[in-house]
Amino acid sequence: MIRWSGKQLIINILLFSIFLLAAYYLWFPPIWACQTVRFRGFSKIAPSVYVSDQTSKPRQDSLLQFINQAHKRIRSFWGAQSGEATIIFCSNREEYQKFCLLYEGAGCSLGTPTGSWIILNPDGLNVDVIAHEMCHDELFARLGWMKAKSSLPQWFDEGMALMVDYRYSDPDPSRRYIGYVQEWDILTNHGKTAPHLQDIVTLNGFFGTQRGQADPTRTAQSYVTSGKEVSRWLGLVGQDGLLRIIQQVRDGYEFDNAYREIEQYHRPKL
Ligand SMILES: [Zn+2]
Predict the structure, then answer these.
(1) Distance (Å) from CA 136 to ligand 1 centroid
(2) 184 within a domain of the structure (yes/no)
(3) Which of 21, 42, 69, 152 has the least CB density, counted as fewest CB within 10 Å?
């Protein structure tokens, strides 16, 4: 048995911690990039908002305006906002790719035990993309890192984000479900090519990823299927049911059971 003196033990623990930290950053270079954003040609223009130095002043002003509007959408959808992600606005795709694990899309969010970030590329300069990413971050903030990563199906995570993203959703919640039914009908050939919810639980299943490439047709079908399901469920359970499922999953309750039971509880009794 190895016997270490107190000093040796402290040194070994310290070395091991440094090793873990280095491994963590090497494994996820985007997280390191986010944490060192201020040394990469980005400036802070508001608390928790960084923009690429190549961003013009009018674009910076619109960004701040859109962020404000997105905050309002999140607060009205959730009742309050718990997420405090740092926002990083990139001026081109090359910058964006340094921060995002997935290179597609107009924005992405990164949640880690040491912080969370929303990264936007120039296409993300609008309230819909920002609110969408904030909604992912909100789930992350309310559930914590472990639970958000391991307990939520991808269709629920994306479906929720769609509820505050009016590119695809009707701003009026009472018309949202019917809008998704129509979209789903068109994109899935009356449901014939629609994925089942159990097929879009994982990230790869949702995006139809093969050899690192997302399948755009499958991705679109997964989005409308998620939007249709989540708008249907929320139409029944409302904000009350939403807050309840978050609480239950945080308490360790299995997602599928909680989802079903909350729906049954809110379903109109005949
Ligand atoms: Zn999303």
Answers:
(1) 7
(2) yes
(3) 21
Domain final position from 80, 110, 144: 144
Q: What is the mean pLDDT of each run of 10 residues along the chain (270 residues)?
A: 77 84 73 90 96 96 98 97 96 89 80 91 95 96 88 95 92 93 95 96 92 89 97 96 96 96 86
Structural domain span for residue 221: 151-270
How far CA 200 is from CA of 89, 225, 252, 256, 258, in Å, comes to 29, 9, 22, 14, 18
Report CA(62)–ligand 1 centroid distance (Å): 22
Residues with CB under 5 A from ligand 1 (ion): 158, 161
Q: Measured in angstroms, how far is the CA atom of residue 40 from the centroid of ligand 1?
A: 26
Number of structural domains found in the chain? 2
- Reported as type and span, the H/E element at residue 151 is none
Residue 45 C-alpha to ligand 1 middle, in angstroms? 25
Please name the amino acid found at residue 190.
H
Residue 261 C-alpha to ligand 1 middle, in angstroms? 26
**Residue 13 lies inside a defined structural domain of this protein:** no
- In a 3-state reduction of DSSP, which class is residue 87? strand
